[in-house]
Amino acid sequence: MITSRLLDLPLLRRSDALRTFSIAAWLGWQIESNWADPLLFAVYAIARPVASVLILVVMYSVITEGATQEPIFAYIYLGNALYILVSQVITGTSWAVIDDREHYRTMKQLHTSPMDGYAYLMGRGVARLIIGTISVLIVVGVGLIAFDLPLYPLTINWGLFLLSTVLGILSLAAIGIMLGGATMMMARHFWSVGEAVAGSLYLFTGAIFPLDVLPAWIRPLGFVFPVTYWLELARRALLGDNVPRFETLAAFSNGQLLGILVLFTIGLLGLSILFYRWALHQAKERGMIDLETNY
Amino acid sequence: MRDDAAIVVQDVNRIYKVRGPKRRSDPQEVTALADVNLDVKRGELFGLLGPNGAGKTTLIKILATLLLPSSGTALVDGFDVVKEQKAIRRRISMVSGGETSGYGLLTVEENLWMFARLYGLDNKTAKERIDSMLKLMGLADRRRTKIADLSTGLRQKMNFIRGFISDPSVVFLDEPTLGLDVGAARDVRAFVEEWMDDRPDRTMVLTTHYMAEADELCDRIAIIDRGRIIACDTPENLKRSLKEETVFHLKVAPLGKRPEANEHRIEAVHGVRRVSTTEVNGHTEVTLILETEEALAGVIGHLEARGSNLLSLEKQEPSLEDVFVRMVGRSLSVDTSQRDE
Ligand SMILES: Nc1ncnc2c1ncn2[C@@H]1O[C@H](COP(=O)(O)OP(=O)(O)O)[C@@H](O)[C@H]1O
Ligand SMILES: [Mg+2]
User: Fold this and answer.
1) CB pairs below 8 Å between A and B: how many?
2) B5-91+168-241 is classed in which CATH architecture?
3) Whose CA is nearest to atom 17 of ligand 1?
4) Model pLDDT for residues B174-219, shown as the tens digit of each residue
5) What pTM was estimated for this model as a whole?
6) Which residue from A164, B7, B131, B177 could staple onto A233, CB 3.0 to 4.6 Å apart?
7) CB distance B88 to B94 below 8 Å
8) What average pLDDT score do residues A276-280 get?
9) How far apart are CA B74 and CA B64, in angstroms?
10) Which of B77, B62, B52 is nearest to B14 (CA)?
11) Residue intervals in chain B for CATH 3.30.70.100
């Protein structure tokens, strides 16, 4: 096993967090890629995301009477493509708690071992991140071929794109881990709490329409989530001069937005670490760590 | 780290708050542990013996850092179960009997390997231990079988192995033979004994409600009932405490309902210290603890007066079960869990 050798690096042996992260990522991949039927995988990772973007394209075309050459089309299309990562990363990390507790019933075994619980959830999110990334690439590919998206490798600001995307993903993982922590303290759970949060962020973070469209009193919601800044930066990086500038964020330079994104991501990560610790403590106080909902 | 004490439990209480189906009603409190004090020495195989609902699992969970005590302190290997959980988790493992969980899509080998890695074992050591333990437990030919395809008995065995892969310095076994067939249970007990014999500095805490298992395996036993430790000693000493008394096991024709009035019960017969009765298909089994043998005649007279009669009678060396009956006036097999009340 090559993977088993990779996971045996001395660094990983010394650091609980890195070791746990890598093992959890391995485990997550075993679970997520365990598609007995490759067709199912194709539907899940390819057909579903492409279909949902196509629905949007149809709606857009009906409203604008086919103006897919307008800069706003690329803006919306890419926002939606990247948004696939939002629900994948949030559900990937938060779902692991429900999965281990209700399905595999391994909470007891995991939480009596010297693993790092926070790093574990991060790691469990990796598999869905990979699948999400594949979906994004395919959706963007479809956009290039079918709708002539104005993406030109030489003019894309790759550094800005990658950096902001990494930050965006980290902040999504932090949100997912907080949801996971909250799940640990609840006897009941909402099976789709990750999806629900991802769904509501969709409206407030400029994925589909710019924040300007929202009533002024709701806009602050969008400003709170790092996702907003990531989506804006990623689209600026990808589209360069072609990006439409909407009033709410137009006044900010790339550097300013990046600064905000860095600060917010660090803040959210810190908050999620504290919250996770608190939630774990609560769960142990209430005797809920290994609880099964049908108790 | 203390040299001699592997586990120290001081004044530990644990209260569960249980909410009824009605959301608004105040939570009910269930006292699972009350003022528990214990010391387990390094190298000891220590037993927690008590009926269902006594609080055994609760105590083990607290020591294994899965549950916080409501009050009191507990140390494992010198580390505090509230403040130094990580240090404890490096040194312990826990296996629950009847535990058939695991990642069904991983093979036996992968599952064990994963947990070995979580404990920080390097690949080589992990592989060696997995190999030897699979052989020892008769699972070697299933190493590449997915967990989902194992029978529950084999899954339980695999989980048992998982508990020993990291060579823990303190092992918690919660009813390790629960639900196993006779042969598998024997394998588990043999393994436990051998493992402890080979490693004089390792400590094990085992809970059970099978008194024979506790008697056979444990160096010392704490008898626990309704959250309280009511006795703690070696099996020999516990049984010796009954030496001045006489223990009889009777089989009698069905006794029917326990009489309402105290003076009509067997306990009222002169010279009877304790009685426990259990209905077994078609007859009643009675454990009698008498001050002297002479009291037996009175009991037989009493039974006849109640329309029952003696089917068989045995005078026995006291067992731990008898010790329990003597102390709480109830058989070990009575479920005292408050869950369903
Ligand atoms: N999570 C829980 N919530 C509420 N009550 C519980 C919980 N776990 C155990 N109890 C109660 O605590 C008592 C002790 O249970 P337990 O420690 O499981 O006993 P044992 O392991 O000796 O059978 C029982 O009355 C049981 O109903
Ligand atoms: Mg129990």
Assistant:
1) 85
2) 3-Layer(aba) Sandwich (3.40)
3) B55
4) 999 988 888 888 989 999 999 999 999 999 999 988 888 889 999 9
5) 0.88
6) A164
7) no
8) 97
9) 10
10) B62
11) 245-316
